[in-house]
Sequence to fold (168 residues):
Amino acid sequence: MENYVSVGKILNFHGIKGHARVGYSRKDFLASLIDVFIKSGSDYLPFEIEDIRFQKNFAIIKFREINSINDLLPYKGSFICVKEEVVRENLEDDEFLIDELVSLEVFDEEGKKLGFVVGVSNNGANDLLSVRTNSKKVALIPFVKAIVTDVSIKEKRITINNIEGLLQ
Fold:
């Protein structure tokens, strides 16, 4: 079974010729794509990006298969996805997929186990790791280099600079 990763969301139409106004997270990655999938219900339908331009905080995308507002409206609110391996091939050294981080054990720099990651969220400024501590509380840890000093997917562990008050 193929795994897909969302790279944008069709927020609305733009004009009458079927252009989509799309919210996205990585401009450079989205701009490099041609073949994508639109999630419709439980199906992933193949589409080709014919044209893309960026305007303020949105992308305006013209799909080859969509030529009018009426063609686009059924996909309003749908996610634009690519196959997981496409995303993995384009990750930087310090980038990870959320599913890779969830369940990793968290240690301090002395090697003491502090808990494990139960989720990842974003507060607008940066990503946050939700860590269930040894005391069964959930602490939010900013996913920034000053605090998260090492991530090893192979060893299934994250090392953090456990500054005072961080896990309280």
